[in-house]
Hints:
Chain C: It is found in: Cell membrane. The structure holds four protein chains of four kinds. By secondary structure, chain B is mostly helical. Chain B is built from eleven helices and no strands. Chain B has one domain (28-56, 80-291): MetI-like fold (Orthogonal Bundle). Chain D is α+β, with helices and mostly antiparallel strands. Classes of the chains: A alpha/beta, B mainly alpha, C mainly alpha, D alpha+beta.
Amino acid sequence: MENLTVSAGSEELVHGINFEIRRGERVGLIGESGSGKSLTCLSVIGLLDRGLSATGRITFGSVPTAATTAGSEPEGLDLLTADENELARIRGDRLSMVFQEPMTALNPLMKVGDQLSEVIRIHRPKTPNVRDKVDELLSSVQIPDPARTATVYPHQMSGGQRQRVMLAMAMANGPDLLLADEPTTALDVTVQKRVLNLMVHQVQHAGSSLLFITHDLGVVSEVCDRVIIMRHGRIVESGSIHRVFTAPEHPYTRALIAASSLETHPTTGRLLTLDTPKDFEHSPPDHSDAAAGLPVVSASVPAEPQPEIEHLTLCAESAPAVFNTVDSPAIRVRDLTRTYGKNRVFGKSRTVQALRGVSFDVARGQRFGIVGESGCGKSTLLRLLTALDQPTSGRIEVAGNSIVGRSERHLRWLRDSMQLVFQDPMGSLDPRMSVTDIIAEPIHRASRQERRFRVEELLEQVGLPISAAGKYPHEFSGGQRQRIAIARALATRPQILIADEAVSALDVSVRAQVLNLLDDLVKEYQLTLVFVSHDLNVVRHSCDVVAVMKGGRIVECGPADSVMASPDHPYTAELVAAIPHVREGAP
Amino acid sequence: MSNDRAASVTTSRPPLTNGQHVRRRGGTPLVIAGGTLVSLVLVMAIVSLMWTPQDPTATDAVNRLASPSATHWLGTDGLGRDIASMVLAGSRVPLMVGLGTVAVGFTIGVPIGIVAAMTDRGAGMWLMRGNDILQAFPALLLAIVLAAVFGPSTLTAVTALGLGLAPGVARVVRSGTLQVLSREYSLAARAAGRGPLYLAVRHVLPNIRGILIVQASVGFAIAILAEAALSFLGLGTPPPAASWGRMLQDGQSVLQIAPLTILWPGMAVAVAVLGFNLLGDGLRDRFDPRMDVTR
Amino acid sequence: MLLNALRRVGVFALTVFVASLVVFFLLGVLPGDPARAQLGLQASEEQVQALREQLGVDRPLPVRYLEWITGFFTGDMGVSYASRSPVGPQVLDALQVTLLLVLGGIGVAVLIALPLGILAAVRHHRPDGTLFSGLSQLGISIPNFLAGLLLIAVFSVALGWLPSGGWQPPVAGVDFLRHIALPALALGLVNGAILARYTRAAVLEVMREDFMRTARAKGLKPGAALVRHGLRNALVPVVTVTSIEFANLIIGAVVIETVFVIPGLGSTLIRAVANRDLIMIQSIVMCVVILVLLVNLLVDLLRPVIDPRLRIAS
Amino acid sequence: MKETHTMKKLFQSGTPLAACLAVSALALSACGAGGDDPVNGEDEGGEATSTGENSDANISIGMFAVPANLDFTTTGGAAVFEALLYNVYEGLVQLDAEGEIQPLLAESWEISDDGQEFTFQLQEGVTFHDGTEFDADIVKFSLERLDEWSANTPEALAAIDSVEIVDDYEVTVALSEPDYNALFWLAGPLGAMFSPDSVDDLATDANGTGPFEFVTYENAVRMEFARNDDYWGDPAGVAGVELVYYEDASAAANAIRTGGVDAILRSEAFDQFESFEAEEEIEVRVGSSQGVVVMSMNPDHEALAQDEVREALHRAIDKESVMAAATAGYGEILGGPSVPTDPYYIDFTGTYDYDPDAAQDLLDSADVDDLSLTFNVPNRAYAEASAQVIQDNLSEIGVDVTLQTQEFPAVWVEENMVNQDFDLTIINHVEPRNMNNYAFPEYYWGYDSEEARDLFAEAAAATDDDEYASSMEELTELLVEDTPGVWLYNPPNVGLATEGVSGLPLNDLGVGIDLSDVTVSE
């Protein structure tokens, strides 16, 4: 790729980048949102959206390796100037791509088998018995019972399975180059691990080269040999995995590595962020830790002394344990169950058991983390804790009084004492309301003057300029919106703060700032924090205690470090092992 | 407070989601085109309140069906009335019917839609069943029976057409409200102890404002067409109030010998309806197309 | 799957029952005395009262309702006040005519809408794309009776190719086609334009979907991707809209039947209302309501066939 | 054969709309191009009689008013009997083209000196279409059944006391009091002869003795007759008649232009007659009708009760422009309640000629200034057109009129005739000799004059035409003087016929439309 520039009308988004991918090489393209990494990938395959135009030159075919004599004309094809017919011939055959969102990438109205056989028939119309080729492809991506799966529709498969079908589809004709645009971002950690291994295996087996786009350093280090780091449409650094991750030259790379592995400032215990003062000489983590494969993460120091918590594991034969038992807890939960779906009188009743009996306490001032993959029941649990949903059975007491079965009128006190922060910065703020109205929403009885004063106070506390009060959500970045959401949650000075995947949707660099903000506010307001996430590292940093959930039950709970360092329950072990982390240099 | 808590404003523009450039605000040419046509009709109605070239009700049997001339810019109709003034004055009735229909349609449709969405489990289901029944009564059918029952009048036309519009509005508002309620800011409001009324006024209405405006413009267009059809069946606004529909009906008997008497009102109706439809389309593109739940 | 269909049919039956209640009591309040309307200007009071008894118009509403509703579903819809002959055959004949007209209308509408809508969507950023969508906009703004009048003026009076009105049953073959051509065209033009707009929107929406990008990444050219993957997905919303359009078409038929003098449900209804023929009005309105609900039911049952996501795994 | 359309007709006819629209004919023109427009309905070649008439031809005639059913003994309105009387049903006597009473099923008759006994000698060898014999018993059965009628003013023959059978073919009708009009009413629907066993399904079938047999009636669409081959009189001129009902006047006009029908009766497409007259294939025949379009003024209204006010309104209305608006100038302006075909007709148009200033003076003399009236208008084209002109005329003399359209017949009949809740109202009374209703104070006109009632009785007791005519003339003079209503115009009876169609009745006499002498020639 030479001098690739992508612009939307007059505005340049990618400013003349150059790089090469040799045959069979696996290259990672890393950058935060807005860095132009996806635009680069899409210009290679020529599927840029209508408003965007790409200039420069992308040669595809034989890169002049040392072996070919200098004089011979490289018979490669310039993808940017190729016409639709030429591009159509090589897409899916010699050049293929896997996209990020598995749920919408397959045609919902066509059977999976047909969509797979289509890519074969387009490029190799005369292949005999395509049906067997499809079954073979499906089993090559470890999909059980391929014959039956081929007749199934996409909506009947899980996210992981669909992504594996996409992979099979991309690799069907043994492409020279596979493009992967954040293929596993939407997947759970354990599923992600399996898909990544599969991808590496397939690419090596077919001898094709790989361009892997992601914002997650850990994932890249698992998959690629070489890495290119992009920021604001420019390449800031590139090189082998080992060299870049152990001796980053560019400051942005250093900060990115620190932020993504949640490194903390040795003295303040706060996470290093992009704006950590430059003078501070970043000492690379000592070699040994990196070698041991465990990122050096030290939990920030909790404010007041915490009660001694024993490390309990759910084992089949013993009675269902009550985890994290504490006397006079902020929150007390006993045998909580919740089932969805109508069990209809006639015909099969289809019910889903979201929670199958959960009992635990949360001490006052404690930072209680809940970890689990999608479908383990953690968001249902949160809804029940905040009385936005009623349990099928079981008791919940907040600060001593029960909140189950109470009508909204009797829950006024709960609304003031417990508040919520959501995951999606886009969806948690009403686009049509000003920041002042948003933040002041929980404040019921107050004059206009008091509300304005309180809003300004909160804005300052979450590190936003007072001038933000009059603006609207679309004028802010993801990180800033999450700060507004936190300000709203603190409007009534609650005792308990519930964070539902509060940082999962943020870029790595912004994530550190928000986590630091949360730690400070928890100390300042002596909050009891219930922090839910699918990312074990984040929970380990921010929480004193962590509970691991699976299939509607808590399987293990205890102090964060001990659960992470020596997981008892096999599932927890699998979770910890599945975390992608920076490993030794490429083979 | 150490300064590193202060956020550094990394990117000013809203983040680009992986390569998909945020959609440009389309639809402006449609809004301009629709807007001009609609304002043309509004100006005609307002002007006709004060002035018309001739008295629209003055009959002059001697020179009936006269072709366009200096005094009668567009000629005269079967009773010798000046067509230009009638087209001007005739714009008032369809606009009134349009306004009335949209008003009735919205006052019934919007609350039903919101309540049905908010009580989606329980009463909402039955409310929507009732809505289906109302939708099964085509508006014009209702208008014909009501007009015949209480005598043709603008009021019966508006009630019938309003009742006809309401179920459509209710259905669209319900799906819009369901979308808003599923968003996290609604959950946050409920968690902040806010009741359904607050949710409806502060969160639902502002966010479905786009759909409402599109439904209003479509409703206006349908009402104008229906008023013309009703008058054509002799059940619309009674004489002597000039209305385009009546002019079309009167013109039908002289179609062979004086086609212009029917073409002018026909064009007027077409311009008005085209105007509202273009405006509706343009506004739909202007507001977030993602909320495009008008289907 | 079957269970779901049964539930829907149950809801349909309930809706029809409630609709019949609404229809009957709405018309019960109709002022203007049917007996007086029959006997005309000169009839004396006793004669009117005698006819009223004979027609049973003065019996309490619930009694008349039961008699009518039980009759309705056994085909005997009672005797019309005006024509004194059973309502059933008359309504069914009129129904058959209107159904044929509406099916003709839908045929024309679909023939216009699909090509126009798809072309408008596919080339929506190029000048001829805006021309197509402009054409469909124009089609919507012309009242269908005006279109009818113009078609008569051109094709029957001026060119003399087609009759200006009247009706021939299908058995009359070519004559039937010649009589249905203009009315179906007038009906189809307007509704075709509406359908074209929905088709355009649906195709535009589908073209933005991720699986279309996957299709392109597989090596399909834009046209092939649209045909193989896009159109079927665009079909789902269009089919739903067609059921709503069907109700509009029935009503459009009322006006068209008056312009083309076709003895369908529409013109029969208008005459029945003028004669205060209560039983006839009730039966026709019920027929229309049942027709609309039936179409909605059929579309509801058809949708899972097109969209597997709606098939609840039994 | 019927005239066929060719492309040349398009340019030669030169109607402005046709020319400009044909050129911009829409691209998506319907199927079925090709100039020749096959005649609908089978048309087997019949032998042509001397004057080229084809006695086996069929004729299709466009009609306007739609019969609700076939039983004119219980269904009001002229639509039913105008089609069936003289064609399927026959009475003892009939009215000829000039309105004179002629023999029909009664060969001859005598009236006793006191005018209370009528003796009829009946035609022999007459059978109903279902074969029943026609004799004195049929006459006795039919006339005595009159009190079972509930429509078409059976009380007009209330005077009939008894019917005696003298022998098989002679019968005497005794009246309780002399009634000169009796024979006139017997010539109408009231005199129709019915066979006893076909009286039950009168609404759906028709069994008479007339020149045509009833075939079928598709409600509100078409009615079909076939020639009665063993008719007692001279057979009908055509083999079959099809009456096609067009509720919309211009649709009928289009039909005759495109060969859909051969003729149209009672057409109200007034605005198109000019263009029809220009075309030589279609003949426009303007006859007179029995109709009286009258604007009645409610005597209970305190202003309208004063004679000067009623006279002022009468003078303020420009009847010429009213008729021009309503019927494009076709028809006769009326001064009084009688129509030109009535034997006692006098032209009163001069008494209250159009003079707005005189009308204004009359109003001032009655010191009535800001008078405001409601005007109930049935939703019929002629009524709405007339009302809008009248409203404009009356506003010239400061009378503010608000129009109130009411759906005809149901709402208009209820509001005006039953409840008499109106200031002004307007309607076209189509029944013949409708001015007789001025004898009844409870009729919606509310005219209560002792003197008028005496004159009515005097006319009824008349024994010969002159005596009857002179008392009726005296009566009309009185009515015109009192002006209970403003008689506007007598609408025309306009018939359209394509080339070769002849024998259609010119005038509408308020009885049956006799189609027996209609013929179609090449």
